[in-house]
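Task: fold both queries, return tokens.
Query 1:
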Amino acid sequence: MMNWYQLTKEQVLEKLGVTKDGLSSKKAEELLQKNGENVLQEGKRKTALQVFLSQFADLLVIILIIAAIISVFSGNIESTIVIFAVITLNAILGTVQHINAEKSLDSLKSLSSPNAKVIRDGQKIEIPSKEVVEGDMVVLEAGDLVVADGRIMNNYSLQVNESSLTGESTNVDKNDDNITAEVPLADRTNMVYSGSLVTYGRAIVAVTGTGMNTEIGKIASLMNAAKEKKTPLQESLDKFSSKLAIIILIISALVFGLSLLNHMAIIDALMFAVALAVAAIPEALGSIVTIVQAIGTQKMAKENAVIKDLKAVESLGCVSVICSDKTGTLTQNKMTVQKIYINGESIFEEELDLNNQSHRYLLYDMVLNNDSSIVDGKGIGDPTEYALLETLRKLGYNEDDLRSGLKRLEEVPFDSDRKMMSTKYKLHGVNHILTKGAIDAILDRCDSIAAKDGVRPITQADKADILKQNTEYSENGLRVLTFAYKESDEELNVNTEYGYTFLGLVSMIDPPREESKAAVADAVRAGIKPVMITGDHKITATAIARQIGIFREGDIAVTGMELDAMSDSELDQKIEKISVYARVSPENKIRIVEAWQRKGNIVSMTGDGVNDAPALKKADIGVAMGITGTEVSKDAASMVLQDDNFATIIKAVANGRNVYRNIKNAILFLLSGNMAAIFAVVYASLLALPVPFEAVHLLFINLLTDSLPAIAIGMEKPEKDLLSQKPRDPKQGILTKEFSALMLLQGALIAVVVMTAFYIGLQVNAATASTMAFATLTLARLFHGFNCRSKHSIFKIGLASNVYSLLAFAAGVGLLAFVIFVPFMHPLFKIAELTGAQIGFIALLAFIPTVIIQIAKVIAENIKKSKQKQNQPNSSKDISLLIK
């Protein structure tokens, strides 16, 4: 690929086949036809219908469809309608979520300006930006949005804000110089890039790239290529669904075979198999997981973390790496004056004293030799310049009062060749030239220095001290401006910017947020590796990272170019030690995310610029800034921080961990209840008993009475030690040995009481047996909702600590009573009339499993407490020793 910035202006014109008078209209039209319009293109998207149909490509869904078809032939139309309603609703939910997530490129397109000024046939004309072609001479002026990538041909003090591409808010001074070395995008000062904003000056630019051949186009390509990754929970549920489907098919086939061996009619044997399939499949699981995640998003929104993609809620719980942008996320995105070197000493800005002449003249230079302003508390102009005005305000003065009494007589604006700005004012009746700029441009122009004892000639020792102080500031990540002045009546121009008196150095930084250090410490405590990725210089980035605890002893900082020089294997070896990446490109960010993901980590990536969007999409959790973030980054992200605060991410991680715990408890509740039904159906088929449940019974339980307690479990509050635990292993599935054993044991307990009720009813007839089994299973599962709220006993967590679980239980009992006691519901649900004694048996039997499970939990808690007590030192002895 051609590096246009490394070519001379003449070489650029030759390669493009154009002169400074621009293209001819005819040539421009030919190029437009050949290369296409200056617009961004999208990758191929699925249609809504394709997305909808893909929702049915799941083995559990297919089993349910087969069960529904069998129900039609057996005359159970109600079951068929309910099953199809459930799977259709889930498919619609999935489709809506997918379509909402597919908006990443729409905002990128909006970054293009509607019109552009170009030189064609030697004349300056205005055309739609989509008609700009390579070789066009574009005229840029302050306020213009850059419409294409280009090499600067003529420069007139051009300043451009490239924050959307580089992530850095400081305006960039452009030039038309030749650059021979290979440099990152942020240092290509002779180029402008599509999507950036002209803040000052003007320039004529030769277009070198349009549409998808621009830097923004490359970002669009990366976003098209970045496939959405499944969350750990999705992967766990996929594996779980596959295993469950296979088990269901095997057991259903076995039950069907046994039924035929017992001389059962084929249609009845099929109904046994259907009942088993319906019992085993947690039909409401998908909806309940979605609802629990939605509840989590509402809680996070109250804490300034807006979740765009529900699936991201749970993924936050197992984040093990957070790659964070520096500017605005870890820092305040506001330049602030730090230390000031004046009169041979380094002081804080609050120590400036207007009664000291050197201090007063430095403040004159900072405030008068400055084109920015502060209106209603908001800085307007260059961030570096209004940071200088803030210093005066901190001292209790207002720059407007000073400026209104002093008139600017002459000026020479800043330009990147001179690296300084000068203005002339009459101060105390004498004309003064005030100058500020880079130390290498000003120090050699100084003949004298303002010292404590007055102005005296500057010495080499003075210059050495000044350079030493400048180096010290720079090594601490500070940006430094040099200030000087002279008394002079001569006309101010570039030829009179000599013979200065050195005043001082002012260092500035975008300081860390106050809460960043504590948030980083919380992340480390939670087993999460924080990494800084920034477009800023390595020294500045490392200094900030060290202050807030990201960069620690033994860590490494690398630049984007150093990263490019590493092979993937070398990066994999070093990545756990690299805490800071500076001067990075969008490709670098994606590579960093992929390297961490290769090591099995769940990666969160934060950012606010267009350049961050591909990595935000590639990461497991993309986090965009709500205040400073571009629409592109917000659309590509899974989560938006309304306060642009790193600390909010850590709160969201804690919430994510709680959401996963609640989802897992809800799944335990659903599956253990379903296992009880499976055990009952298998037992009945083995002993050639009548079918204990109708399919409509099981659908009633799975969709209505089970859903409410499962949602209530999702409302459980977080436990205090969530952030003290390490992130869970994303490869670990839901069906661990411990989880499976607990599920089977609890299911077996419920199955025993259900079959006991079935046998009691069977003494009357099969219909009564089925009704008693159904009622006992429903009520037992409602009681079981309290068992699954936590691993702790109900006595420890408190029965009323989750009011939703009580409401869910009451609603479930009400629904069951409605079906059992209202006569016109009996034919629909195949319910037999029950006596008072039978209802008493149902209530007693249903409560027994919960009593046993709670007793077991209390015993386990007491054993654990006893062990902890044995391991603790005797506190009274410790106190007596202290008293002695």
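Query 1 returned. Query 2:
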Amino acid sequence: MPFKKIINNIEQQHQVTFNYTEDNIKDLRLSPPKRSISLDQKLQYLAKNTNLSFENIGNKFINIYKKENQSPIICGYVFSNMDKKPIENANISLSDKTQVTTDSNGYFEFQKENENVFLISHVGFLTKRIVANNSDSKNCLQIQLDPEITELAEIKTSAILASGISKNKDGSFEIKPKKFSILPGLIEPDALQTMQQIPGVNSIDESVSSINVRGGTHDQNLFSWNGIRMFQTGHFFGLISVFNPNLAHTISIYKNGSSAFYGESVSSVVAISSTPETAEKNSFSAGINMINADIYAKYNLSKKSSIEISARKSITDFVETPTYKEYFNKVFQNTTITDFSDKQNVNYQSDKKFGFYDATLKYAQKIGNKDQLILDLITIKDNLEVFQSATFYDMNRSENNVLRQQNYGGNLSWRRNWNAFNTTKVNIYNSSYELLANQKTTFENQIVIQENTVNNNGFNLENNHTITSLFSFNDGYQFNEIGITNLEQVQNPDFYRKVKDVLRTHALILEGKYNDTISRIYFKVGTRINYIEKFKKYIVEPRIQFNYGINKNLNLELLGELKSQNSQQTIDLQKDYFGIEKRRWIISNNTTIPIQRSKQISLNLFYKKNDWLLDVENFYKKVSGITTSSQGFQNQLEFVRITGDYEVWGTEMLVQKKMNHFLTWLSYTYNHNNYHFASYEYPSFPNNFEVMHTVSWAGIYEKNNFKIALGTKWSSGRPKTSPDNSQIDNSNPVLVYNKPNNTNLHIFSQVNFSSTYKWETTKGIQYKLGISILNILNRKNEISEYYRISSLTNSIEEVETFALQRTPNVSFRVSL
């Protein structure tokens, strides 16, 4: 068909106008393009089959002109960098979105025109960007592609302690709650209860508000929820974690060797993330147990946005279950609330109201293919109201006590993938904490108010760079501002004190990682450089993680870190906040309240073969800058204010065997932990949190949807200080103590049980029933002991606090 007729047909079909000179198209004939294809496709067809070029201006005017000269070509050969063999079917992507592929010899060519930058890609190889200028087919490019080694979140074993718990190459323990199986006494993946099964982690008073990692106090641990530092970790004043167990996707626990991006802790790091690693479908679940009820929902608003909510509330407003009664007895023993009833034996009445709740919200939005915004919000609250009254000697006395504890947090994060090799994360967060106690006494007409508030703001910037398939590099900056207020107000007699301190810190972070899966070497080293504005002080904190696979069954791991912490919890008086939540947050002043500093190193051997697992870790840790008021003394050091350090070394061992559906493990921990107070008459003595020997055992059976676990925990008693009876005058008793922590409590022993069963209907609805019993044998375990002079008998009395008695719990959950 004549070319002129072809373009006339195109003009009529697509409403365009061709501009040309007759000489360029005279006597030109060819087969017409298909009518069904697009305008651009028609123009490409005409250009390919003629010596003409077409310039499309806004799909309205099309200029036709003759090609001046044939464009030069760019050619090349593509080889594998590993074996130097040619790569067939590699894609060469040009900026105009056209592609060519290599042949069996790895050869390609294309017309240069204005193109000299292109990408070469192939499955299994890293994409390469090429800038080329050659136009000589006799001097083609020689291009080598590096193999792409996909770095998985490698673990040494698929299950450690229980399904859903693993240990990573960086030494951290990782818990996946949605894959969590079962542990003795646990039917839900409570993060803070689960971590106490890890060797080296325990709680001397059975509280998730007092978790001790290698001899440290609870406030020396960093608890992070989606990038927000949390200052309250327990509901029911420490017996239940504030983190909804049905919400988290990943929980990472570092006992040592944490990343340089984690600051403000001299002990462990617990990082909880509720962001899924991959897109998930809509879901809903609801559950109830003998303490609380909760709901969870996740809804995809579009392909690029989703919203997730969770809420949990205690059921104590409606019913007092046996579980609640055991928890209440455990929490409130030997507090001012129970002291009131102990001292009165006539016409005593008590009315108590207790409740807690927590709620979270997550909104995620992808913007384009490279950006993502995530908003996280969390609110936590515990509230206790106790009204007590009694009549004695014809006098009425009553107390109205209110204790409130709450933590709010928010985090806005932005993530951008600049390309396959560079990523930036930015997040801004706020965490606000309040502990308030209000006591009104009618007999003495007195009002006592105590308040501890924390406001923490922060900004984090993190850049991740992949240099090669083996080496990556991270850098970042962090700004942190923390303000803490302590208020005490008394009426009759009048007293008022309010102290507020603010501290701002800046941190630069540098971190490099080398991971060679072939030679089994993992090496990560980093440093954190802190600058504290108020003190004009620099603190450098290096970190190291090294893992070497001696062979496919045996790994050697070395971890080390230096860390610091500017805030801590102290106890002014044991009866503050009714003796229930007596710890208050304060800020270091670099003199009487020093900045806490820690150094730690550990060496680990990990062996796995034929479903046997052996993990042995030896460690040394020293924390300086501690104060006596932060250690909870209830002896001659209770009112002494001095500073010092503690030094702990020990061994943690775990032996595990899996046999078909049965998993069993035995762990042992040895800790030798001493205080050092140079200015005190006894410069060295055992740490309050020293538990020298701990042995745990568990047997877990899983088949299909049925799971059952039985386990026991045995530990030597914590230190205590006994009075010197030889120096006590019974007519005028005054407490005189022996050397601090000169003896120990009795052995702690507990047997726990749990079981769950899950089934699913034909409509896809899942049901899960669980039952647990803590302390099956109902053993009376003493967890603390101190002495005081009784105002009733004018004699020295021994005050004992005991762990939970036999405590059952039942849970039921529905998931869609």
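Both queries returned. Flag for query 2: The chain has six helices and 51 strands.
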